[in-house]
Design a protein that fits this description.
single chain, alpha+beta, 12 helices, about 40% helix, globular
Amino acid sequence: MVAKFEIDVQKHSARFSIHTAIRTQLGLSGNNDLVHLVIKSHDGVEVFRGIKPISSGSEIYGSDISKSLKPGVHIIVEASVPAAGQEQDWTTDEVTAVVADYFAMLKDELLGKAYSKTVHRQALLKLLANCSGPAVEFKYCNISAVLQGMGLTYVAGYKPRGNYQALLAEEVRKFLFARPELRKQIVENDATPVDSPPDGSLFKLQDIEMPPPPPPPNAGGSTVKPAKVDWSEANAYSRKLGEQGEQFVLDLERRRLRDAGRLDLEAKVELISNAQGDGAGYDLRSFEEAGAEVFIEVKTTKGPIGTPFYVTENERLCSVRHAVKYRLYRVFQFRRRRSYTD
């Protein structure tokens, strides 16, 4: 189904207006539905083309769209849902090509090198005889889902999308297990500390807080074996990154209480992990604005929100014993800037 409609972008509600209209026109009711969008200005100039997740109860995010939408602008939107089964006829050579291209993007992202999703997609399309741009982007999202199922990080610009064919999962595994150095790089690079970590005191919690992600997408009947990850080794690499994330949240919490006028509570926010090590089961002691004590565990990765992280048994038990007080702060994409352009 393809829906084509026009919208007069209202002041301060550009992305939400499009989001609501798309869900209504296509009859979407699920969480994190993937939609192929073409957005044009009133005079027919294309300002965006690509696949975006449309999540229940949220806006369409991304400067790639919002930068072209000004209050009072009249736009034309074409939206369609990519068919989950349309890639079933991809050949082994085609799947192999898209897997190799995806990992080229992932390696650039891990190294912090700039890359263009559009350039990659257009170059790949020249190698694929019967595949469209939206089908390729859908396949990239499928690969993200495979990696997430294996317990590995994935390309930030392609959110995991399920219902992938068994051939794709097998080719991803073959690619990775033929390259043990790449598997190690994925685990190590995402856990290494940031050269210039963001300053939490410059942010307001309400401006950067996001709802929890949906559950990992269904594999569509195919099975993916988790990759072997040495968590003890990974934790050794991630300890410094974890400390950077804890400092970020410490500054963020102090800013939150300071902005609320609770300077008395701001002074009491502390890093428990510095004083007691990991034995407490949480990292920070902070407070609600009304004065109630809260225990905060911080989990930090440089990868997307779906990047797996390790939880100790002590942390799990602490979350159960102090369920009312316990908070988990998931700090993700802990980098200065994103590596890719659309």
